Request: fold
Amino acid sequence: MRMRFTAKAGRGMVALTVAAGLAVGATACSGGGGDDKKPQNSASASQGNGSQPSAQEGQSEEPLAEVKGPSGLLLQLTSAERDAGGFITVNGALKNDSGTEVVVPSALSGNETEIINNGLSLGGATLVDSKSKKRYYVLRDTEGRPLTTTGFSTLKAGESIDVFLQFPSPPADTTDVSFQLPLFPSAVIKVSG
Reply:
């Protein structure tokens, strides 16, 4: 089930998302520290090719979910945190678990023209809240770029990249959602925060 908005409401949602991202980005920049101390759910990390959030301390712990995709690709989801700005940031790692270089399938970007036009990404991912019977798509900025890791096309044997995805937040009482990415099996993950 896809949520539809009028053009005016859609622009309002995009403006709200961008404003929240700018506020989080401004807060992250005002700390005076280096990039090593970025908040783990910074919305400002979505800009640029191959942008990725900083490494998280919790990534050495047991992942929330681990799903195997085509050609030896392995997706480990390490956190799903609710942000005060009204979105959820899912963090993890995409790894080539095969013995040869893998071309990352374009299907991971989904089939929406606006996202495809912005290059390879994880823009095809969704969160499903079965309790509220709603599906949430990856957020986008005002230029249609998905708020997720972008700019990768191949992974060498054994190579792993940190990934993030941002979604609208389900209601506060929803703690379990199903994470879905084309070509991968779905996985239930717990939302914190």
User: Anything to note?
Assistant: Strands lie at 65-68, 73-82, 87-96, 102-103, 126-129, 134-137, 154-155, 160-168, 176-180, 187-190. The longest strand covers residues 73-82.
